[in-house]
């Protein structure tokens, strides 16, 4: 019988590892069940990805009892986003959802999602990510042995720094942490600032010690990782999408019999749909929690936001060749209708 399904918390993993017996079985998988390990880097709850992973584990563990069992490893307790890609091809993990910014080594097509000011809202991004066009983009991972199963939306990104940011010139000369994305680097350099690529788990320390001056992320990452504690405030720029590609390996999918594979994929698709509907509310809650923690959020009037668009949006041209002008145009059209 399946025991309580519990995401492996950082502390559980740390204790288990310190005794040399990693608790690789937090969901209590039974003998004979196919174990599906889902490794990610964000908080285990109160975050669009953390919550989606938990919901998926719950649905799989309830509906596939006796056949398959999912274990979730949040907070980079198992792998960070670079290592998880390698681990997946080695069969050490079966499911991951790195940010779309982190697939550059595998495909340049997904650079689309990093283009600044591509989506005006989470609703527009979600509508695009539910389209056939967006599904086709995930197919660009297939040559590398991965299968893109869908998207999880997270939120639009906001800038924070160790000084107030109101005008783009306020960012000039500062150093910002970015994900492993050349689009993000170009965007930061357009602000006359410098960019440093760092793993997610290193960001809080880098902000705290002044290795970097600022960062850009979603409300829920800024809140759950406590970045707001070590920044002057957050500026509501809504300048870029944070979303994830849910991936597995072709080898894992091929190892499942037809019935199991169909059931797994159906549960996954239904769960992602359900999870994505809740993202805007979760982001609003995280934003409110930052305010409740007495941190400063600087809203920009349309007139104040416009110069940020003017400075950063031209980076689109630099990446048009990788992505395709038609692909960009189609994705951008969702912001007009949503
Ligand atoms: C980041 O590195 O900032 C994000 O990709 C983390 C995440 O998964 O949301």
Automatic annotation (TrEMBL):
Coiled coil start-end: 265-292
Keywords from the UniProt entry: Coiled coil, Signal, Transport
One Pfam family here: DctP
Signal peptide: 1-24
GO cellular component term, pick one: outer membrane-bounded periplasmic space
GO BP of this protein: C4-dicarboxylate transport; transmembrane transport
Alphabetical list of NCBIfam families matching this protein: dctP, TRAP_S1
Family per record: Belongs to the bacterial solute-binding protein 7 family.
Record protein name field: C4-dicarboxylate-binding protein DctP
Organism: Amorphus orientalis
């Amino acid at each position: 019988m399946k025991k309580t399904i519990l995401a492996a918390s950082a502390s559980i993993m740390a204790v288990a590892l310190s005794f040399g017996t990693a608790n690789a079985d937090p969901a209590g998988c039974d003998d004979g069940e196919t174990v599906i390990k889902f490794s990610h880097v964000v908080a285990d709850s109160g975050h669009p990805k953390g919550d989606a992973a938990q919901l998926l584990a719950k649905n799989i563990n309830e509906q596939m009892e006796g056949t398959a069992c999912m274990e979730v490893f949040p907070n980079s307790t198992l792998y960070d986003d670079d290592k998880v890609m390698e681990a997946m091809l080695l069969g050490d993990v079966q499911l991951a959802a790195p940010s779309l910014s982190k697939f550059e080594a595998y495909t340049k097509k997904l650079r689309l999602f990093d283009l600044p000011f591509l989506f005006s809202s989470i609703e527009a991004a979600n509508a695009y990510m539910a389209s056939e066009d967006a599904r086709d983009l995930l197919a660009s991972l297939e040559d590398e042995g991965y299968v893109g199963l869908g998207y999880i939306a997270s939120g639009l990104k906001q800038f924070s720094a160790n000084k107030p940011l109101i005008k783009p010139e306020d960012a000039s000369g500062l150093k910002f942490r970015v994900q492993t994305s050349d689009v993000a680097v170009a965007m930061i350099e357009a602000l006359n600032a410098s960019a440093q690529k760092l793993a997610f788990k290193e960001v809080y320390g880098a902000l705290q010690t002044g290795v970097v001056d600022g960062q850009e992320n979603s409300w829920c990452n800024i809140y759950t990782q406590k970045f707001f504690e070590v920044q002057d405030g957050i500026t509501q720029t809504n300048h870029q999408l944070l979303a994830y590609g849910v991936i597995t390996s072709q080898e894992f999918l091929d190892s499942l019999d037809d019935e199991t594979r169909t059931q797994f994929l159906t549960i996954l698709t239904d769960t992602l749909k359900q999870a994505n509907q809740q993202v805007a509310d979760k982001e609003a809650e995280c934003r409110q929690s930052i305010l409740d923690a007495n941190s400063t959020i600087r809203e920009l009037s349309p007139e104040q936001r416009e110069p940020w668009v003017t400075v950063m949006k031209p980076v689109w041209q630099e990446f048009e060749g990788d992505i395709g002008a038609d692909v960009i145009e189609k994705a951008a059209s969702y912001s007009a209708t949503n």
